Every structure is written in C-alpha cells, then in structure tokens.
Amino acid sequence: MTGKTGKTGKTGKTGNMLIAHGGGPTPVINASLRGAIEQAGRHKEIGNIFGARFGVEGIFKDELINLGALADEKIRLLSHTPASAIGSCRRKLADNDYPLVLDCLKRHNIRYFFYNGGNDSMDTCDKIHKLACRSGYEVQVIGIPKTVDNDLAGTDHAPGYGSAARYAAFSALELALDAASLPARVVVLELMGRNAGWITAAASLFQALMPCEHLVYLPELALDREKFLVDVREAYDRKRGLLISVSEGLKDTAGASLGDTGIRDEFGHIIHGGAAQHLADLIMAETGLKARAEKPGLLGRVSMAHQSPTDLAEAYAVGAAAVEAAVRGENGSMVSIEAEREPAYTWRSGLVPLGLVANIEKTFPREWINPAGNGILAPFLSYCAPLADAPAPSYASFLRDTIISAT
Amino acid sequence: MTGKTGKTGKTGKTGNMLIAHGGGPTPVINASLRGAIEQAGRHKEIGNIFGARFGVEGIFKDELINLGALADEKIRLLSHTPASAIGSCRRKLADNDYPLVLDCLKRHNIRYFFYNGGNDSMDTCDKIHKLACRSGYEVQVIGIPKTVDNDLAGTDHAPGYGSAARYAAFSALELALDAASLPARVVVLELMGRNAGWITAAASLFQALMPCEHLVYLPELALDREKFLVDVREAYDRKRGLLISVSEGLKDTAGASLGDTGIRDEFGHIIHGGAAQHLADLIMAETGLKARAEKPGLLGRVSMAHQSPTDLAEAYAVGAAAVEAAVRGENGSMVSIEAEREPAYTWRSGLVPLGLVANIEKTFPREWINPAGNGILAPFLSYCAPLADAPAPSYASFLRDTIISAT
Q1: Where are the domains of chain B?
Q2: pLDDT-based confidence at residue A184 (cuts at 50, 70, 90)
Q3: B403 touches chain A (CB under 8 A)
Q4: What's the pLDDT at A395?
Q5: Is the pLDDT of residue A262 over 70?
Q6: Chain B residues closer than 8 Å to A401 by CB
Q7: Is there a contact between A135 and A105 (Cβ–Cβ < 8 Å)?
Q8: What is the ipTM of this complex?
C-alpha cells in the first residue's frame, strides 16, 4: 500500500465494521467482500462484521446482515458467487439522507466503513466521510473499487473489469467463428458500457484468431451512420463473414443514443434498449444484407464461466487492503491498483483520495482506437490481456485449416 | 443400433465418404464430425474422407475439404471447437439443384454420404437419397441429427440440445441472482427457439435455486399481453426481483411474432429482432417498472463454456453410428437417440427413416407447461437434466443466507 490521505496512525480503537455494495455487481465483487471479511477477522480492533442488505437501502432501513456469523467455508464460497451476495442498490442519496446514514453508523458503533462500488458510489462514500468528520464521529471510511465498466479514475483498472473483458473476448471470438462458418454473415454484438468503451474494446483481444472481419465501435466516438454503412459494405465484400462489436451506450453524430428507450435511472443515466438491434435493422434496411443482433447484457457481469483468475485475486486483495488501510488509520480514500506490464505484469494496491475519483468517468483513450474509428490498436491489447487472463483457446485455428485455407 | 430402414447388408464396396453440415452449428456439431471421421478411419471400405465446405454450397461449387489429410490431434480438437469447423449453410435446394448434387457425388466416387442437420436438412438428405435410388447410383445416405432447438422428430432429443439447455440453465440462474441482488428488478431473458420452446424451458432447470420470481413463456402458447402484464405485476409485488424467460419466436394471440423484423430467411422463417426487448418496453410503458432485456442469442449455441459432457459424448457417438450404419448397408435413415431415464439415464443409438423426420417440427408438450401458461413442470426437468448434465452450482444458496433470509 502506498500513498497517504486523510489522517494516519493506527486507530487501535475497538468498533464494528460495516461493508456495503453500490451499483451493479461484478463477477468478483463477492471476492472483495471475502477479502475484507477474512482480513477483518485478523484484527482484534474489529468486533462485529456487518453487511448492509441491499447497499445504502439496508443502512436506511437498519437491515444489517451479521456476516461474522457465517461459517468460514461459506465465506470462502464468496470467491465464486455471482451477483451481490449481500445485495446492492442504485439509490442516489439526497442531501438530507446522509444524516440518517451517520445515525446508523453510530447506532451500531461502526468504526470501520467500507463502500465497494464505482464512481457514483465513491461520491457517496466521500460525502459520508466528510459528514462524519464534520460531526466529529470517528469512523474510518475507505472505498473499495469495483466496476465492470473500468471507468473508475485513480486506478490502473477496476476489479470486475478483467472478468468482463474475458467474457467479451470469448463471446466475440466464438461469435466470429459462428459468423465465419456460415456463408458471409453479419452479426452485431452489443456489450456493456454506457459512456466508456473498455468492455467492448476487449472484444478485440482474440482479433488475431478471428477468421472473419471485425469492426468495433466505442461510445467515445460518435457513430456516423453513412460511414458505418460504408465500413459494413467494404468488410462484408471480403466474403469472410462480419462481426461488429458495439457498446450499449453508442451515440450518433447528433448525440442521440442508438439504444435509448427514453427512460432514465435514478442517477439520470439512460436505460438502453438495443444499440445492436438498431444497427442490425439499419444494415438490413440500407444494404439488404441479413444481420443479427446479440445482446448478452448483464450476462457479461454475472457469468461465472469467464471469471478471470487475475481479476479474482486482485478483487480479494483490494478488499483485504481496505481493511488494512482502515486499521492503519487511513480515511477518506479508495484503494487503487498500481500496475506495471514490463517486463511482466505486476501490481500492488495503493490509495487515492475519494474526492479525486468521485463522479469522474475515465473513458477509453482515443489513441488506442484506430484512425478510422472502427478498430482497436495493439497498446490496448497489451493493457488488457493480463487483466482478462484469457489464454488463447486451442480451437481457434481450426477454421483456418478448413474453410478459410480452402479459398 | 436398432431399427431397419432402406436396404441392408454390408456393402463391402470401396468408395469415398462425404460429410456436410446443414443449418446453424451447435456446441457439439464438430464432435459428430470427429466421430464420423474416426469411425471411417476404421473401415477399409472407406477411401478418402471429404467434408463439404459450407454445406451443400460446397457440393455445388465442388469445394470439398480433404479431412483425411488432417493430423489425428487436429481431429481430436474437433470435440471442443465451436461453430462449424467445415462450414455450414442455410441454402434451400430447388428441385433442379438435386441433379447437381448427384453429379458431385458421382464425380468424387462418394459411396457414403452423411448430412448432419435438423429437420430442413433431413428433408434435403431424404431427397438426395431418393434421387440416387431413382438414378441407380449406389450411395449410402445417412442423416446425423443436430439441432440446439430439439425440434427434431424421431429421436428422444437431438445432439446440441443438451449444451444449449445447459447454457440456458446457467444464464437464467445467474441473471436470477443478479435480479435478486438489486432491489426488485425485472430482467427479460430471450433464448433461441423459433417455434419450439425446448431451450427456453431449460431456463427452469435451476428454478429451485432461484432467489427471485421466474416466469417462462414458450412459443407453443400465444402470449396474451394483458394476462402477461397481470403475471408481471403479481410476481413483482412479491419484491424478490423477477426474471422472465421467453423464446425468440414468441407470438401474440393475433399470431404476430413479438420480435418480427419483417424479414425472412431462405426457408421462409422469420428473422427475429427482439421479443425480450419488446416485452421489456411493454412492461416499462404499461406498469412504470424498469425492465431490462437480454438476448445472448447465438452465444447459446456457440459458447464452449457450457458444453454438456453428456451432449458431447452423444454427438460423437451418433457421428460414429452413422458411419457404422452406412457400412452395414443401411440407407435413407437418420441416426436417432433412444433414451431411458429410470432407474438412471441410459441411451443407445437407433435409426429412423428420413421421411419420418423430414420437415417435422417437434414442439414442446403442453402437459409440461403449467396450467397458467407461465411456468415449466417437473416432468420436463427430469427429461432435460441428464441432457444438460448441469450440476447445481455451489454458489446458489448464498443469497438465501444473506439478503433472502434477512427478510
């Protein structure tokens, strides 16, 4: 652990611990929970270990789960449990909600508070920390990073992303094989990502193994429908089949979301219908080609089959590191991941002030997208590969030996 | 192998073998290919082993792949290779196309012809067989069953279905956990199936482990939108989260396909857009609830992560059985699977005349759907469980110990 934020110095104080989940789950969010619980068990300063049932909703309703009462073998299961084992929520706190949160912390003598979430959650976490400071209530508040979207600032990447990237990589490769194994077909794959294209970019991880054309469109660049149709026609004319990977939050040059249902969630974010279906319909209407849209959606964040081992290990470690930081007296910080990729991938946890990550969306760098805006460049693959920890499947070369080489 | 169809008696004739794929791939179609290739290698009557590149398209264009030239270890890889390793197609043959197929068989001295497909392909296979008989060209024609849809008649089930069922079961359970881990949410999951609900029904395999409500709608029953909305409101009001599993081919009481894009494929089948998105939009518009639609689509037939071991073994065996039947002198038949489930699941291959399975769609039995038309009954689970070979995941009980039991 590096970095210094808030006051430091081992608290030595005895008190209880509360951990809450915010926002959508990841395939490894429960591994962070396990890491925090098991680490807390090693510190006699920490008494009871509570989980908030359904995130801040559980804090309001005073519905805390006694996690310390769960058997050790049950806790170990958390590493491979999808969704959120203690429940999460998307409730955005109003200003007058915060005192109620503080009341709950006081009522249960919570001296160690951990909030595991993304940039919305880190804002909530920061506000709770500041209110506690103003009120003179002593509680160590530490954020634990989590988001499949990888749009969290202040960290090399967020736990959850590596598994979502692995899911995207295998899904794209397998659909590419499907598209190549029937005469020239178009398949549009929609992956998660409102404003950041990190997950969709990972669809390119196995690009070198794909026997068909592959176009990728991220929400960082507005989609020009005319140029898109030119891209599609050119790629299709190579007669190898065509996979198109797009983000759910893709917008057109007028700023309109392609999959906008017209409905907003509690944070004002657009509820997306189907960018992929929209584009498949566009292709069919304008080119006469047949196109299919696939949208695995939430499966990309809940499917255990593609959990990344590296992601799993890191998620556990940031949960444990948060407890260590709190016991050491850190406050008002989020645990971060500091990574190096040369000569080999290594990482360690760090700390960043909550205020520096709250509400900030880290989008995908333009320099990792090709000049044409329809493909991903090699530096991203170097960034992402160790996180997804996805070995190239042995099957990938088969179609080259048969239907591809036969041309 | 049981059953007798066409002429029998070991042919003893030396000749070449051709195998072709028809229609969409399955996660185990290449295992049947491996079974046929390896079994053919044991018979000196069979000379060269050819695969048709892109199904009947390859026969027309005289693009045959010399499968006998592939190394043994490459052939073994077929068991875990997704999509179609030799290519498939959806071309529906016109009457005047058949003589061209026969010309190709003669040109390459094909005396053993295998067509691996569903009910459309078995019709094609039957017509090739009959034309060969009329023309006096001696060739053993045997169908190898394959379809994720499980709508093939004359067989307990079709290879490919078990893996698609396993994918549906895990996808539904994991989405159910996601839906239950955020305060009362509605998720609509669309699974493959034009007219038959077999795959969607498998979403109920882990029903007993689901911590949320689950409604299931198959295309065998017309969807009444008003009744559907009543179902949704009632289920949602139990405040446990709600998963709704639907088939892509779901129709309303007026006979209109909910996901109809207005486009037809070569067989006249509807190209489906999104039944799930349609229903999610309906829920949002009529109830004010927020609903998300997910459509993994083709991932359900190409994803290797959920390949069923039983399905894999059976797919290999029916490929091998087809070669054995042909060498034995059987003709004009499809290999079938005859299964028993009591006292334990056992199966053996059989043979059925192609004419009895061609173009017939075996739909899901009404008596395995609950009287309300929104759920699947236990007898189906007994039918499907051994095919999907899906052990209940250890994680499934977790939410009961935390967010569910805490209510």
Answers
A1: 15-159+306-356, 162-304+363-404
A2: confident
A3: yes
A4: 82
A5: no
A6: 70, 74
A7: no
A8: 0.94
Q: Tell me which CATH homologous superfamily contains domain B162-304+363-404.
A: Phosphofructokinase domain (3.40.50.460)
Contacts of B381 (CB under 8 A, 6+ apart): B204, B205, B207
Strand partners, A144: A116
Which chain A residue shows the shortest CA-CA distance from B306?
Answer: A305
- Verify whether the Cβ–Cβ distance A395 to B274 is below 8 Å: no
- What is the CATH architecture assignment of A15-159+305-356? 3-Layer(aba) Sandwich (3.40)
What whole-number distance in Å separates Cα of residue A143 and Cα of residue A128? 11
CATH architecture of B15-159+306-356: 3-Layer(aba) Sandwich (3.40)
Chain A interface includes B77 (CB < 8 A): yes
DSSP labels, A104-128? HHHHTTEEEEEEEESHHHHHHHHHH
Alpha helices by DSSP H, B94-192: 98-107, 119-135, 161-180
B81 touches chain A (CB under 8 A): yes
pLDDT, tens digit (0-9, with 9 covering 90-100), for A5-45 = 334 345 567 899 999 999 999 999 999 999 999 999 999 99
pLDDT for residue B180: 93
Residue A8's pLDDT is what?
A: 39
Domain pair B15-159+306-356 / B162-304+363-404, same fold: yes
Between the alpha carbon of residue B300 and those of residues A49, A183, A350, B82, B271, the distances in Å are: 40, 20, 40, 11, 17
pLDDT tens digits for A120-152? Answer: 999 999 999 999 999 999 999 999 999 999 999
Regions of chain B short of the pLDDT cut 70: 1-12, 261-273, 405-407
Cα–Cα distance measured from residue B364 to residue A95, given in angstroms and rounded to the nearest whole number? 54
For A163-301+363-404, CATH gives: 3.40.50.460
Distance CA(B316)–CA(B37), nearest Å, equals 10
The reply to whether the predicted model has a pTM over 0.90 is yes
> Order of strands across the sheet with A140-145?
A64-66, A46-52, A15-21, A110-117, A140-145, A333-340, A346-353
d(C-alpha A164, C-alpha A145), whole Å: 15
